[in-house]
Amino acid sequence: MLVVDPDRSWRAVLRRALERLPGVEIAAESEDGGGAIEAVRRLRPDVVFLEADLPDLSGFDVVASFPLETRPAFVLLTSRETAAVRAFEADAADCVVKPFASERIAAALARARGSYAANGSDLEVPGKRRLEEWLLVKRDGRSIFVRVADIDWIESARNNVILHVGAEKYVHHETTSGIEARLSPNRFLRIHRSTIVRIDRVRELVPWFNGDYRVTLKDGTELTLSESYRERLRRFRV
What we know:
Radius of gyration: 20 Å
Strand order of the largest sheet: 2-1-3-4-5
Largest sheet: 5 strands, parallel
Number of strands: 15
Order of helices and strands: EHEHEHEHEHEEEEEHEEEEE
Structural class: alpha/beta
Number of helices: 6
Shape: elongated
Strand content: 25-35%
């Protein structure tokens, strides 16, 4: 675990709150963004408590310097409540407003650790951040919360993905492989290099040409399960 704050007294407060919790090992501290980036690359911590306002880079700059697929869980610290929305836009695990109680730090740590599920019904690839109940996306200069459970299917769009939610479409800045790694494999299935579907939205799969399947969703949308992804159906067969 890494603690980053330019104020030594706040680092001490945070360290005391964390060291009371089971399984916590603080590998290092840093007082600026450059040091934080170097420490993350060198130590590869699973969780980073990071002040949003740093003397050189912002905490958001630090978060953005790491690929979404491999970054640790960042908990942003701030004295400005308005920074909370921006923290979630940056895909931070949590945002804690100063001053804070030790119980709030415990809750933030539990949330951050929960981003790294390695076992259980929602099995994920270790080191990948799981999507929580909501996903914050931008459209027309606004930020909008989209419930992950409402996503019908996802398609690639260069370095972005398009989330299909009923009749609505939302562009989200993430690769198809990146978002696939963060979705529950018990609820979403990748059927093509450019397509992911929510399993309970599928009405039927019909064998098509060259080993492909035609996938029809309950709303009538027709997609293709390519032959190269057909093996993924094996785990659903008895």
